[in-house]
Write a structure and sequence with these properties.
This protein is α/β, with parallel strands linked by helices. Helices cover about 45% and strands about 15% of the residues. It has 3 domains: about 130 residues, Arc Repressor Mutant, subunit A; about 70 residues, Tetratricopeptide repeat domain (Serine Threonine Protein Phosphatase 5, Tetratricopeptide repeat); about 130 residues, Rossmann fold (3-Layer(aba) Sandwich). The two termini are about 20 Å apart. The C terminus is likely disordered.
Length: about 450
Amino acid sequence: MEIRVLGPFELVVDGRTRPVPGSGERALLALLASAPGRIFSTVRLIDDLWGAALPVDPLNALQVRVSRLRKIVGGTLITEPPGYRLDLDQAQVDAGRFVRLVAERRFEEALALWCGPPFKEFEDQDWARAEARRFEELHAVALEEHLEARLAAGEHAALVPELTRLVNAAPLRERLLGQLMLALARSGRAPDALAAYRAFRRRLADELGLTPSEGLRQLEGAILREDGSLGPPVATARPSTNLPAPISPLIGRVAELGRLPELLARGRLVSLVGPGGAGKTRLAIEAARDAAGEFRDGAWFVPLAGVTDPARIPDAVAAALALRDPESASARRMVTAWLASRNALLLVDNCEHLVDECARFVEELLGSAAEVRIIATSREPLGVPGEFRCRSGRCRRWTRWRSSSSGLEACGRTFLPSRVRMTSAGSAGSSTGCRWRSSWRQPVSRP
C-alpha cells in the first residue's frame, strides 16, 4: 500500500490506484498519512477535520468515517487508545520518503517525487495548509541544494533559464537570486547579473525595508571586480558552531561529561535535568563541544533564558543558526526546512519556563530532520517520545503524561478522553482523570 499526497491525493494498492469515495474519508486518510504510524487522538482528529463546525455528535461522526475508511484500507487503520493510527512505514507515504531523501541529501531523487502542491485537495482545512507550507518550504530548500550541486558541476549557462523562472516566481528568495547571479556571471553575462541584483535590492527595500545579506553584497562586489574565483552565491563561510568559549576548566564532572555522548549515540534527544545553579548549561556546552566534530554541519547553542513568549522559540533557533530569508514568513518553517537536510547538534538551553512549546517544537524538529540530535537543559524533562533524561548520575529513557487545559496531553501531543495510566520507561504508574470537552463529553466505543 502507498499513499501519495505530494500532488493529487491517491491511494495505491498492489500497484493500482484504489478510489476512496467520500471527501470526509479522504481527508481522514490524508491526515493520518501526514504522520504514518503515529497515534492521532480522537480529540485532535475531530478538531482538525471539523474545526469549529462540529457535527451534533462528533465522536459518532468520526467513527462513521473510520468504519467507511476501514472497508477500503482494512487492518491498516488501527484503533489504539487514545485514537487511531495507520500501520504504515514512512516509506509507504511519498511525503515520508521525500523527508528521508532530503535528510540524506539525495535531492534529485526527492524532487522526482514532487508532483504538485501537497495536500491541495484539503486546502480548506487548517491542518492541510500547515502541512502544505511545511513541505513547500522543504521542497524549496531541496531545489536550492540541487541547483547548488549543478552549479558546482559547471552547468551555469544551462541553469540560467530555470533560475530566471524560479526567481520570477519567488522574487524575494535570496538564495535563488544569488544562484542566478552566479550562473549569469559565470556564463559571461556580468551586466545581467548586476541588473538582477539591483532589481532585487530595490524590491527588498520597497516591500520589506531590508537590505541584501552580506553574502549577496560580497557576490556583487566579486562580479564588479571581475573576480575569477566568484565564491559560493549564498553567504560568507558559515561557522561550524556558536558554542560559547569556556572561561575556566570544567572540574569534577568527568563521569557526567562522559555519559552524555553515550546517550547521544543511543537517542536523538538528551535532556540534562536539574535545579537552577546545578551547572547544567556549562556541562551541556562542554559535551556539545566534544561531540561537535561528529556533525557535518556543526553544533549550535540556542539560549532561551531571555525568551518569554513561547511563540518566539523558532526565532531564537533561527538567530542561533544565523538564518535569514525574506521570502519565509515563518521562522518555524525556515528552521525546520533548513535543518531537514543537515547533520547537526543543537543545544537548547533553559527550556523550563517554556517547556510545553519547547517539547512541541523539539518533537517537530526531530520528526522532520533525521540527522539532527538535540541536547536540552531544563529543570524538568520535555516529555518527548524517545527522550533520554540525565539527572544526578541517573540516565534513562523517559516518557510521561502532562496535564493540559483540554485533558491529559501525552508525549505524542495527543489527548485522552477519560482515564489513562501514567508510564515511565514502560512501567505502570497510577491512573489519573482528565476533563473531556463539554460539547461531546461521553466517549463511546470505537469500531
